[in-house]
Amino acid sequence: MSAMRLSLLLLVAAAALSARAAAQMPPFQGGQQGPPVVPAGGQVQPQPVAGGGPLSPEFYSQSCPRTERIIAEVVQSKQMANPTTAAGVLRVFFHDCFVSGCDASVLIASNQFAKSEHDAEINHSLPGDAFDAVVRAKLALELECPGVVSCADILALASRVLVTMTGGPRYPVSLGRRDSLSSSPTAPDVELPHANYTVDRLIQMFGAKGFTVQELVALSGAHTLGFSHCKEFADRLYNFRDKGGKPEDFDPSMNQSYAKGLQAVCKDYLKDPTIAAFNDIMTPGKFDNMYFVNLERGLGLLSTDEELFTDPRTKPLVQRYAANSTAFFDDFGRAMEKLSLFGVKTGADGEIRRRCDAYNNGPMPK
Ligand code: HEM
Fold first, then answer.
1. What gap in Å lies between CA 185 and CA 189, rounded to an integer?
2. Is the distance from CB of 267 to CB of 277 less than 8 angstroms?
3. How far is Cα of residue 184 from the mean position of the Cα atoms in its chain?
4. Pairing of strands 227-229, 276-278
5. Test site for ligand 1: of 223, 233, 281, most ligand atoms within 8 A of the Cβ
6. Coil, strand or helix at 56
7. Claim to verify: residue 181 and residue 222 sit in the same structural domain
8. Displacement of CA 252 from its chain's centroid (Å)
9. At 251, which CATH number?
10. Average pLDDT in the chain
């Protein structure tokens, strides 16, 4: 790709993102009762649900048969109005599942009595549009079948709908999750991967939760959508030093034109922390395997992205997914199915929230 085309792409990307930058997750005002910010590689085994049998795609077939259709209508129209919704929802889902399981704990708002996962630094950049999509779906479902569909199931189904809508695979989603009775403000910063982690640390973190190296790489393909703020990759662009401490203009694993373009786009990021760049500069709104093709060309945005192409344990998988979109879709779908069953709450360990940002019994029932 020519340097000029790359620079143009970066300019377009920066312009497209400026509108989105203003729409980050709104800080929740402690104690206010105003309008809800957030109301309301192998065979995956079904998870047991205490008192209700295993999770099942048919879970709501009697109690709320139009569940999937209602969620799809709401989030698809949200995505059409705000095309960055899909990426936001997918990231919120990952941040929910990796911290205490897929239980909507990430949706709980803070209040004057207790802080929630919203307050963890890593979650400050979760976009308001993603929460709004869930809010709207919950409201529509509460009108149709009150108190039946969990917020955790809404998030799982919304993610699948949006992955499919942006061109990605349709994978099975079992239903019957219950919503959490707690939400820790400290766990997300510990339990979620950060952009400065080594591949070693990523493998360890995913491994500790039962995910393989292959699943780590496949799931990272979610970075085919959405964007990252400059602070997440600025250390690759400015005052970069190699492992021996030698100063470089930028991280030499980056394509030169790409790095220079990003240096220009991000130059004021300390004054304006909302500046961001697309994770997949080539096809940012399309769920495809371009993320992996980009890594081969030095067009990975985060160092955790690009390092998947340098580490010998992950490089062959990057190459496979870059060459074979079907292999990526198959593995991504299976890994998402597994992620969506991670640590689900069942029976008395959870509840069906009336609104997704608050426990039914007040600020902190436990
Ligand atoms: C492998 C380790 C991972 C790291 C280190 C990582 C890190 C990040 C960072 C730093 C951002 C930018 C956030 C911002 O500046 O707003 C981001 C965005 C994103 N991440 Fe990840 N992530 C990882 C894995 C995942 C996984 C497994 C998924 C989903 C299955 C995912 C989905 C996303 C999406 C869709 C975005 C774009 C969000 C948006 O546009 O609002 N990430 N990630």
1. 8
2. no
3. 18
4. antiparallel
5. 223
6. strand
7. no
8. 28
9. 1.10.420.10
10. 88
Sorted by sequence, the CB contacts under 8 Å of residue 116 that are 6+ apart come out as 105, 108, 109, 110, 183, 184, 185
Q: How many A from CA of 99 to the centre of ligand 1?
A: 14
Radius of gyration, CA atoms only, the chain: 20
| Pocket lined around ligand 1, Cβ cut-off 6 Å | 84, 87-88, 90-91, 94, 125, 127, 193-195, 197, 202, 219-220, 222-223, 225-229, 232, 279, 302, 304
Collect all residues with Cβ–Cβ distance below 8 Å to 291 and sequence separation of at least 6. 220, 221, 223, 224, 279, 280, 300, 305
Atom 13 of ligand 1: nearest residue by CA position: 228
**Domain assignment of residue 354, yes or no:** no
95 belongs to the catalytic site:
yes
Give the tens place of pLDDT for each residue, 182-212: 999 999 999 999 999 999 999 999 999 999 9
Q: Is residue 314 part of a domain?
A: yes
So what's the pLDDT on residue 10?
A: 57
Tokens encoding 224: 């085919």
Helix, strand or coil for residue 179? strand
Tell me, yes or no, whether 364 lies in a domain.
Answer: no
CATH code of 39's domain: 1.10.520.10
Q: How far is the CA of 223 from the centre of ligand 1 (A)?
A: 6
- Confirm if 96 and 105 have CB atoms less than 8 A apart: yes
**HEC profile of 281-321:** CCCCCCCCCHHHHHHHCCCCCCHHHHHCCCCCCCHHHHHHH
Mean pLDDT of 290-295: 98
pLDDT of residue 270: 98
Domain containing 57: what range?
Answer: 24-192+342-349
Cα–Cα distance for residue pair 328/292, rounded to 1 Å: 9
User: Structure pTM?
Assistant: 0.90
Residue 207 placed within a domain: yes
Query: Which residues of the chain form beta strands (DSSP E)?
Result: 48-49, 53-54, 227-229, 240-241, 247-248, 276-278
Give the pair of three-digit tokens for residue 310: 């340098």
* CA 331 – ligand 1 centroid, Å: 18
67 annotated to bind ligand: no
Q: 331: which 2 tokens?
A: 């593995």
One-letter identity of residue 344: V
Query: What does the block give as tokens for 77?
Result: 């129209």
Number of domains in the chain: 2
